[in-house]
Design a protein that fits this description.
about 160 residues; mainly alpha; 1 helix
């Protein structure tokens, strides 16, 4: 073989070797790309599965939220009813207080009238106050002490 033939054969082998190297490199790159794509697909599938689980949990919680809303509305209605009942009770108590005040005023008026017509009572005195005991006592009391005093400080309003 001549030296030119050796150069051509060496160049051919050299070019063939490069082609083999390039083909192998392309196959390796294709394999890496396939692995990356498979990994990405697996990751996407896992993310999709997780998203579906989250959606299912949200659907389950939606029923809980609706139940909680119904319970909150029921509690609000009970509260409003209790407030109305409390207001009605407060109004009854106010009416009762007014009735008691009126009855006490009538009682005091009656006592003042009795003291006014009683010749033994000095109702024009500056410290005059009618006896307005409104609660019944279980102990005996004297409405008119026999010593001529009102039973407090020894002074007399009655003659």
């Amino acid at each position: 073989m001549s030296s030119t033939a050796q150069v051509v054969v060496a160049a051919t082998l050299n070019t063939g070797g490069w082609i083999v190297i390039i083909v192998i490199a392309l196959l390796v790159l294709a394999g890496v790309a396939a692995l990356v794509m498979a990994q990405r697909k697996k990751s996407d599938s896992h993310k999709h599965d997780r998203a579906e689980e989250m959606r299912e949990e949200a659907r389950e919680r939606a029923a809980d939220v609706e139940r909680d809303q119904v319970e909150a509305q029921r509690a609000q209605q009970e509260s409003a009813q209790a407030q109305r009942a409390a207001q009605a009770a407060e109004e009854r108590a106010a009416e009762a207080r007014t009735g008691v005040d009126q009855e006490q005023a009538r009682h005091e008026d009656q006592l003042r009238e009795a003291d006014r017509i009683d010749p033994h009572v000095d109702h024009s005195s500056d410290d005059y106050a009618p006896e307005t005991t409104t609660q019944p006592s279980t102990q005996p009391t004297t409405a008119h002490p026999t010593d001529g005093t009102d039973g407090t400080d020894g002074t007399s309003h009655r003659a």
